[in-house]
Design brief:
Helix 1 packs antiparallel against helix 2, helix 2 runs parallel beside helix 5 and helix 3 runs antiparallel to helix 5. The protein is built from six helices and no strands. The longest helix has 37 residues. It is an all-alpha fold.
Length: 175
């Protein structure tokens, strides 16, 4: 039989035992993959940050953006993969502690993902100016300007994502 997604499904694959078997495989993979993502991502970002904050590298805007990106990506790892890993191991859900924790965790997740993506945009624009307009690069691609742009981005993303505090809520669907 063909499902509405266009996938051929046999009677055995669509049965409860087949779907529970696939669910068990996915859960087993998550038990292995999530800690690997957390550990390797944390170590990689910390090593990158150690290199990027060295005195010689602090003088360039690109390294400032990469340093902030390393911190932001570590935040994404912890509010994403680590949070889900803890949920798998213990059943504890940060989102279900209270209405505020639900809103705050969702805000941090969305904000950090947006910040990570937009930092790459700022970094790309910085590199574009350096390559295509090298004479303007010394004035436009400074660390001070990178800090100001990152601060502006930070504030804009906070404002953009503030709706989470009044549009998201925790519902009790147990009864």
């Amino acid at each position: 039989a063909v499902t509405d997604t266009g996938v051929n499904v046999t009677a055995e694959e669509g049965s409860d035992s087949g779907s529970s078997y696939l669910r068990e495989i996915r859960m087993d993979l998550l038990y292995v993959i999530l800690p690997v993502i957390v550990v390797l991502g944390t170590v990689g970002n910390l090593l990158a940050l150690c290199v990027l904050v060295r005195r010689k590298l602090r003088a360039k805007s690109v390294y400032f953006y990469l340093s902030v990106l390393a911190v932001t990506d570590t935040t994404v790892i912890y509010v994403g993969a680590f949070r889900n890993w803890i949920r798998l191991l213990t059943g504890f859900k940060f989102l279900h502690l209270s209405v505020f924790s639900c809103k705050f965790v969702i805000f941090v997740i969305v904000f950090s993902q947006h910040l990570s993506a937009w930092l790459i945009v700022l970094l790309t624009f910085d590199r574009f100016l350096s390559v295509w307009h090298p004479f303007y690069a010394t004035s436009f691609c400074s660390v001070k300007r990178a800090r100001v742009m990152t601060l502006i981005l930070f504030v804009l993303l906070i404002v953009y994502n503030m709706h989470i505090f009044w549009t998201f809520t925790l519902y009790d669907d147990t009864g």
